[in-house]
Hints:
By secondary structure, the chain is α+β, with helices and mostly antiparallel strands. The protein has helices at 14-18, 29-42, 89-105, 115-121, 134-143, 262-273, 304-321, 328-331, 344-351, 364-367, 384-398, 437-452, and strands spanning 47-54, 60-66, 76-81, 125-129, 162-165, 176-180, 186-189, 192-198, 208-212, 214-217, 277-285, 289-292, 325-327, 355-361, 404-412, 416-423, 458-468, 471-480, 501-507, 512-514, 518-522, 549-557, 562-568, 572-577. It folds into three domains: 14-140 and 235-362 and 431-452, 3-Layer(aba) Sandwich (Aminopeptidase), CATH 3.40.630.10; 163-232 and 367-423, no CATH class; 458-577, Immunoglobulins (Immunoglobulin-like, Sandwich).
Amino acid sequence: MSQTQSATSPPPGLLKRCYLGFRERWFDHEEIQAQLRRWAEAFPDLVRLVSLGTTPEGRDLSLLIVGHEPDRARPSVWVDGNMHASELCGSAVALAIAETVLAVLLGEPVSGIEDPVRSRLEGPRYFIMPRISPDGAEEVLKRGRYVRSVPRDARTGKNRPRWLGADLDGDRRALVMRKKDPGGEFVEHPEHPGLMVLRGPDDHGPAYKLWPEGRIEDFDGFTVPDPGYLCDTATDLNRNFPYDWRPEPEQLGAGAWAGSTPEATAIIRFADAHPEIFLWLNLHTFGGCFIRPPGDGPDHKMNAADLSLFRWIGADAQRITGYPMVSGFAEFTYEPEKPLRGDLVEYAHRQRGCIAYVCELWDLFAQLGRSKPARFVDHYFELGRDGALALARWDREHNGGRVFQPWIPFTHPQVGDVEIGGLDLRFGVTNPPLDRLPRICADQTLSLLRVASLAPSLTLTVSRQTLSPDVSLVDVMVRNEGALGTRILREADKIPWNDGVSLHVEALGDVRVEGPVRKKLGHLDGWFHGPGSGTDSVFYTRSPGNHHERRERFMLTGPGRVRVTVEGSRMGALSWEG
């Protein structure tokens, strides 16, 4: 769709002066809000700042809308970060994407983006939600507490002891407690004192029990409950979306019902109101990979053309970032062939018809020299003693020792003498060292914007020819000049509201339209085809027919004007009057 430039141009260098430092430190909620407000105030022709709702602690769920004519519906890109509270890196990358899009729209130089890509980036709108879980992130940043997503638990029937994470020694961190116990499962690594590893038959000890720093609710004076990553924060936001949602205990962290959290509900409502979203990037940490659909079945059950598109995206992304793209079902289920239910990307892909995928930011395993296992997810469970030692050495040599903390004696009011210390995963594991952040932001921005440049782009050309004093012929040509077709994905054809493009002719005066005034044109193809789609064979270099365009003609009787509108649920609308 054609764009109109802002009537007033901001002063040169204003974008740079708006930068508040999100590549140099981890922003809290107020700092993110300040950055978003700064852009919205400085560039009112390009930016809208809206709140999708508020959290139970009263924080805005803020969304930045960026684009020429930001209020006009058209193919749009969604980026979100920090739905898991400790994964702060996603917020920084989302902000970097917003800043780079602004630079493109302002005509400022952007490294790594070639002119053909850059010109196509001016067409879409961009919806950017830097922090899905501000309440959780505040707990992580201000109190050092582990929170999976949101720091609340509304479960009923909690009639058993459980761990509540808390900072007991006043150092603003909730780490790990260890207690000597002949029946303990852990010992210190023989080559690295203080590094706890699973006990083996040849270990001399002493042996330890490891528990989260905190206290036991409903403690009976003897029974120590099993700790769990959701023991005091009930819901994992990435299990709370409606596609294939399953309740507990079938899906841990599912929440009371699909969309039971205000954070998930806000996103669902916005996405439902904006079918024009065609690309969805869900930012997580850590590991260094992209995770694509399908998440609930093998690749051979996916549409072949859609799979070829994802394979192109994956290859291009790996070329830029070094991260491989893996199948959610084949390589990122915690238990083989047991899909994760209520996942945001599956919702965006299946129900919203988007090109949707995850990025697990920060390639820690590559930094440790770990080779890729058969299933990428096994990186997280098969580190072993050698991997733990490599992590400890890397932390000391490249991360200032931020991860491995010394053990400090402490008298626990419930379990007696312990030591507090161990792993602070926030800075060096869950998130990269800050000196790595600028490069991560740059690479991820470039990768995402190359996919954004594939957006479909409608054009409308209309001419009216007078045949006699009372009769005229209107000739309408509708084209998609974008890379992707207006359906976006072939599988999205199944979605009832994704019904293609339609044409509407409206009489504005003393004129009569001969024939139907509304007509469905269907979907218009794009020019881009991924590898293996059948169009890239050197042995048969042919184009398909002109499925990217439609031509319609109709007669008018009378001298009045008409309005011709072409529109689609994913495309917005274009109009001509004459």
